[in-house]
Amino acid sequence: ETGVTQSPTHLIKTRGQQVTLRCSSQSGHNTVSWYQQALGQGPQFIFQYYREEENGRGNFPPRFSGLQFPNYSSELNVNALELDDSALYLCASGPWGRRFGYTFGSGTRLTVV
Amino acid sequence: AQTVTQSQPEMSVQEAETVTLSCTYDTSESDYYLFWYKQPPSRQMILVIRQEAYKQQNATENRFSVNFQKAAKSFSLKISDSQLGDAAMYFCAYRNTFNTGTASKLTFGTGTRLQVTL
Fold it and tell me: Which of residues 21-80 of B touch A (CB under 8 A)?
């Protein structure tokens, strides 16, 4: 496996701004999920995309949105940033139906000031 | 909704010794998957071991093994012959099965920080 790559690794934004985080998965990974990990906490599920359509969402407001592209890349967009959005954002991908877990990227550390 | 509880915020073990990390979960499903992930300072979640709920046999991966008690909804991780490189945050996670039209998401516990001392 070539892994899952996220960019950028770190990002600082101002409250009220918009941000786009990117994830590049390997070929065949038609399922991608995004997680938010606040400091000292476990990751929280934001949403999942399967074949370019959202098929599930956690308890996050609509200002969190995403896209999945045919080339197995994906984006997480967050509008109207709030201070509480400061966290590590993790992307996880894999083939649909795979039993044995997803492959995670190293995450993007977002700081909102 | 499923929940995962890790009641040990921190654990410490001496090098070469054995340590057990605890995890309990709550679900009404009969078929699901359980995982232990390791998160070192590099931040990437690394899969340590996995268990399918329908399998009674406990999973093992080299120095890592689990004690899966389905009726008690308990899923502990045992690390034998601990090494300095085992020091990290460990997360227990539950995943529902794949069903068309719904997400197969991971639900994580709050983690246990493992320290390995000489």
Answer: 33, 35, 37, 42-47, 50, 52
